[in-house]
Amino acid sequence: MDCETAPMKVIGLMSGTSADGIDAALLEIGLNKGLPKLRLLRFAVFPFPNRLRERILRVADAGSGATSEICRLNVLLGELFARAAIAVARRARVPLRDVALIGSHGQTIAHLPDPKAEYGVSIRSTLQIVEPSVIAERTGITTVADFRPRDLAAGGEGTPLTPYLHALLFRHPRRDRIVLNLGGIANLTFLPKGRGLRGVLAFDTGPGNVLIDGLVARLTGGAMGVDLDGRIAASGEVDPRLLRWLMAHPYFRRKPPKSTGREEFGPTLIDALLRRTAARGITEEDLVATVTAFTAQSVALHVRRDLPHSAASAELITCGGGANNPMLIKRLQEAFPECRLLSADEAGFPGRAIEASAFALLAYLTAHGLPGNLPRITGATHSAILGKIIPGRTFQGLR
Smallest Cα–Cα separation from 318: which of 350, 359, 356, 357? Predict the structure, then answer.
């Protein structure tokens, strides 16, 4: 691979565990001294209508998704992702013909990385829908999608896949940093002082917004989907007994590499929480306050146990939807009194654009025959070129 390549324009698309909409990022990416160098040209969010979000979350709940509904949503979301790609290019005033690639993470419906033995083989599985053939057909642009399965096939967790970008954007030569993504599921990337990818660690810590949002939706009968500005949590008190019960979740006993999803921190746990709180007469406000504290404490547990000692005083860079929840940020600051907390925007890159940008980067790496996973992070046995390539109308090979 050449040490330098001419930059190309790439669009990254993704929808997270919370299924609140499509994030679309248009970047210019090239190689400089063997490492990708990128510049964000435009970012946009295209929210899902409430009824579509409900359909997505319904099929993502264990055992509730009808095959025909998943099939339809796969194509419908492909159409909406294609529209998002076209729209973000238009907003940037970049003709589609000038966009070389699209990288689409899609929408996670199930993530089951724990190996299960069947018919003499060990099965790890994941499913992201959003049909990339539709995206390539509607835009005419070569589309790379379905990034997780190759890492799983190589013995990994299939995620996290954002640490490569975190290191490029935020690694500091003289300070340890932690990038904490508070999406539906929370994940962190530890960036020891220095440069490059050496020494980077990352894994899912547990719930981000998935429990808070799910509880608020259940408690309000769907009238609210988030705890806006953390107001409900701020009006309640943390229940220590309930918090201890939550912190005993078996996921926290596992050591990295590890990943998780709605299967462990979604509707099933919410049902158990509601039964337990009803029996003890815990108020709705106290329940949301406790779950908010639980999110922060689950992050703190992993930082203290699974990262180097210096991480306890690292700069903590927050991104994802939870970064906009003042009560969650307050609980994190209480859990990390020696850390300086700052948003990704304050650290130099728009926080909401990070994940979509990561999949633009992964598409770029794939198109240049470069691996996109970090085996020491995902647990894969080797580096792997990720994703499936759907040729655009003018496809002339990978390079």
Answer: 350
Give all domains of the chain, ordered by start, each with its CATH number: 5-158+352-390 (3.30.420.40), 163-338 (3.30.420.40)
Q: Judging by beta carbons within 10 Å of its beta carbon (0-12, 13-18, 19+), is residue 169 exposed, middle or buried?
A: buried
d(CA 239, CA 288) in angstroms, rounded, equals 10
Low-confidence ranges of the chain (pLDDT < 70): 1-3, 62-65, 395-399
β-partners of residue 201 are 190
Amino acid at 157: E
Q: What angle do CA 81, 370, 163 make, to 5 degrees?
A: 65
Tokens standing for 370? 């470069």
CA distances from 275 to 194, 219, 269 (A): 48, 13, 10
**Nearest residue to 331 (alpha-carbon basis) of 299, 303, 307:** 299
**Beta-carbon neighbour count of residue 138 at 10 Å?**
17
Can you give the pLDDT at residue 307? 97
Summarised one tens digit per residue, pLDDT across range 297-310 is 999 999 999 999 99
Residue that the structure tokens 């810590």 belong to: 205
d(CA 167, CA 176): 11
The span from the CA of 318 to the CA of 29, in Å, is: 24
pLDDT given at position 3: 60
Helix (H) or strand (E) holding 307: none
